Amino acid sequence: MNRNPFVNYKRQSITTLTPVEIVIRLYDETEKQLILSTTFIGDKDFLNANKSLTKAYDCVKALQSVLDMKIPMSADLDKLYDYFGREILKANMKKDIELIKPLSPMLSELKSAFIQISHMPKEQLRA
What we know:
Elements: H1 5-15, H2 19-42, H3 46-65, H4 73-94, H5 97-100, H6 103-118, H7 122-126
Helix pairs in contact: 2-3, 2-6, 3-4
């Protein structure tokens, strides 16, 4: 058992999140890593840029892995996540900020949609 109270708190907070809250956190982390990567690329710190872009890619793949393909919208999200993943990989290979810039507004819009979903009553979500 970990005796670090912060680690325990983080672990507890993650295990009590709803699935929608986890998706929102993944969007937050993806956006954060993309912002960090642009800073690192600008500073020519390619090692840390690689780390940030890899984390962003992993977040996108995590989002993709939890899609429920029984829901019609999931097919569209799957295609978007594929696009995000490809662009992040290209940006990482080329260390090109211009490939990263268009991703943030799209991610932000998707995150906003999931935030709205998180405020909907459960009965409305089931329908």
